[in-house]
Amino acid sequence: MGSNSTPEAAPHHAIKIWEVNEDRLASMQRKISDKPLLLSESAGHSTCCIFRVPQSLVDINGRCYQPHIISIGPYHHGEPQLEMIEEHKWRFLGTLLSRTQGKELALEDYLQAIQPLEEKARACYSETVRFNTEEFIEMLVLDGCFIIELFRKIVGLVPWEEDDPLISMSWVYAFFLRDLLRLENQIPFFVLKCLFELTRMPSEVDGPSLATLALHFFNNSLQRPDEVIAKHHNLEGRHLLDFLRSSLIPPDCKEPQLGCKSQPHFIECVSKLRRRAGIELSQVEADSFLVINFKRGVIQMPAVTIDDFMSSFLLNCVAYEQCHSSCSKHMTTYATFLDCLINTGRDVEYLCDRKIIENYFGADAEVAKFINDLGKDVTFDIDLCYLAKVFTDVNQYYRNGWHVQWASFRYTYFATPWSFISAMAALILLVLTVLQTLYTILG
Q1: Which of the 8 DSSP states describes residue 50?
Q2: Which of 140, 268, 330, 410 is deepest in the core (most CB within 10 A)?
Q3: What is the pTM of this model?
Q4: How does pLDDT run across 213-258, given as a tens digit for each residue?
Q5: Where are the beta strands (DSSP E) in 272-382?
Q6: In terms of Cα–Cα distance, which of 119, 153, 160 is closest to 136?
Q7: Which strand (E) or helix (H) includes residue 90?
Q8: In 248-302, which residue ranges form alpha helices assigned H by DSSP?
Q9: Sign of the torsion formed by the C-alpha atoms of 133, 136, 138 and 144
Q10: Number of CB atoms found within 10 A of residue 60's CB
Q11: How far apart are the C-alpha atoms of 348 and 337, rounded to whole Å?
């Protein structure tokens, strides 16, 4: 018989309860209750329209979103490389004050006119504006008056001072055109309109509107006819970038509604469309380069000039549409359409030959890279874009078996003069052989 063994007592383990550091706890509670500083409370509202460009786009396109010579608005205010034009802003404000003395306007009148708009203006920025009331209003008045006076001087409503460096150095104007259309470099359009109406002299009552002045200012690069500009004399926008973008959106190029999906797909590049389905591209006249159609195997597109201005403008328009949930995505759609058409420099070369692209940007390969980068890392709903029908129609034509066979035949036998001559020689030889055979049989 075995002896009964007494079980050993289990060892006791002391459990130490971790105590939360009171200072850490208080710090966390403060962070929970603190309002965000980098993102304003209005960032998610439709009123918010001036954004910092997402870092993903900055990584692709570099400094295309940052001003090079002039700061407008709070995001780049005070940066050392922009100080030169900052001094000229005060000079322009001084000449404006002198010119409007006839209306008995003093500097305090300008500040008082903008003060009621302060809260509304702050809500336009996605980041918290770290200026107090006086600083913010001063900045809006200074920047707004400079822009308006610059428009008036360029259009010819107000004479330039003799030997003004801003007009004698032609490169400055080119940088103004680009810097005033950068997403991070904006003030609200309603601020510009308020200052424009305030400083409008009696002799200007029947003169051009703010919209007309702005369109003529940027027309040095866009080159639109006067009758097209006249259609937009009452146009407004959220800021200058949105204003110019809106002027290029034709009224009949609307985006489809949610229930009208046609399930389109992306299209192939120009080289494949031509070689595999015989689809060609043709340049047409239109008020805007956004007007694109597809008829009888031909993609019809207006001409567009790709240069330093247009590249910067398109990049900032796409960035704006990516950030603002309430605005249409016309420029993003156009950029995506170009990105589909262009894979290599050969595609650009063909579009240049067809007078659809005027290349003042660089080599064809550089344009191709720019277009491909323009469409990178962007959110795009092909079902709801204004070119949804064009995408659908091109794909249907491309997948039609008869079109593919005919295009293959043309590419094989008619792609070059020598292949055409060879095909004709073979056809003639075939005809002669048939005739000789018939002659032999009948003889």
Answers
A1: B
A2: 140
A3: 0.85
A4: 999 999 999 999 999 999 999 999 999 999 999 999 998 887 877 6
A5: 280-283, 293-295, 298-301, 304-306, 357-359
A6: 119
A7: helix 83-99
A8: 270-277
A9: negative
A10: 15
A11: 13
